[in-house]
């Protein structure tokens, strides 16, 4: 499995996905609104979920929403080893923090593979704990982008968080 699209090729708002439900929600919203989206893994997901699982989640969501314009980025925390494993898997966009020298070396390798390495996570909507991830994604990606109305569990009405 490979994630082929480069996020630099798509000017998109980012949505943090934790599972297939979140990925499908973000892609459903992007497809309905006809806007691009960057599916961003949870912080450090490469270390506990792995590149193959991330690929499977993204590809499964794309199968449900084939018209959605999407790129995907796997967060490798501060681990060059996880970043290299992600590149070997075919992931074309990774987030790698940590030592700048190590990141430069990984970025050099990534460029030869047509991939991109980002040092920082983009501003993103995190779908974790939201009651309605599709509605939250629509609000985040839509014309009034950035307004989040999804309610998190155990939250008082009217106090939505991003």
Architecture blueprint of SSEs:
Layout: E1 13-17, H1 20-33, E2 37-41, H2 45-48, H3 51-64, E3 70-75, H4 80-89, E4 93-95, H5 100-112, E5 116-118, E6 124-126, H6 133-141
Parallel strand pairs: 1-2, 1-6, 2-3, 3-4, 4-5
Helix pairs in contact: 1-3, 1-6, 4-5
Would you give an account of this structure?
The protein is α/β, with parallel strands linked by helices and 162 residues long. The protein has one domain: TIM Barrel. Helix content is 40%, strand content 15%. Strands 5-4-3-2-1-6 form a six-stranded parallel beta sheet. α1 packs across α3 and α4 packs parallel to α5. The longest helix has 14 residues. The C terminus is likely disordered.
Throw out a few tags for this protein.
162 residues, alpha/beta, TIM Barrel, 6 strands, 40% helix, elongated
In summary, what is this structure?
With 162 residues, the chain is α/β, with parallel strands linked by helices. It has a single domain (7-141), classed as TIM Barrel, CATH 3.20.20. The chain contains 6 helices and 6 strands.
């Amino acid at each position: 499995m490979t994630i082929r699209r480069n996020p630099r090729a798509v000017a998109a708002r980012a949505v943090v996905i934790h599972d297939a439900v979140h990925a499908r929600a973000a892609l459903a919203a992007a497809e309905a609104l006809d806007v691009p989206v960057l599916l961003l893994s949870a912080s450090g997901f490469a270390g506990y979920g792995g590149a193959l699982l991330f690929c499977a989640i993204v590809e499964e969501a794309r199968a449900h929403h084939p018209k959605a314009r999407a790129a995907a980025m796997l967060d490798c925390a501060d681990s060059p080893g996880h970043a290299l494993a992600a590149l070997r898997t075919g992931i074309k966009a990774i987030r790698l923090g940590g030592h700048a020298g190590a990141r430069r070396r990984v970025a050099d390798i990534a460029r030869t593979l047509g991939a991109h390495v980002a040092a920082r996570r983009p501003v993103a909507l995190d779908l974790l704990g939201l009651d309605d991830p599709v509605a939250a994604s629509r609000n985040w990606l839509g014309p009034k982008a950035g307004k989040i109305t999804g309610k998190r569990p155990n939250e008082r009405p009217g106090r939505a968080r991003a």
